[in-house]
Write a structure and sequence with these properties.
The chain is mainly beta and about 140 residues long. About 5% of the residues lie in helices and about 45% in strands. Pfam families: Phage_T4_gp19 (PF06841).
Amino acid sequence: MAKRQDPFRGFRYVVEMEGLVSGGFLRVKGLSREVRVESYKEGGVNEYEHKLASNVTYPNLVLERGLALDDLFKWAQAAADGQVQRRNLWIRLHDEANDNAWAWEVAQAIPVKWSASDLDATSQQVVMESLELAHHGLRKAT
């Protein structure tokens, strides 16, 4: 009898960045890939149009966490100052036993936007920082 395989839960993950301490992230957004297609209409063929695969695009990756360390800010500031340093990062999804179950490698990421949540004296919320990264693609990592 085969062992039942449940889907992985989205809250068990670790983000590792080349050369940065970084800490834990509350949210990771933008793990997707799209193969663009171009339509080609062939003369005399009216029942369909050809769909030809074009380039692959990746949206920017967004990492969010509570504001604590300044490593992400320094990396983003250096890029804003013209000292762009590309870094690879890995997002590792864990299973119920906390073992690595699935992982993505994000290639050659650079910070393109850093932001912090609003400061509000009437709120008790943690100040959040968000780092948006452009990259050269993601692959399943081992």
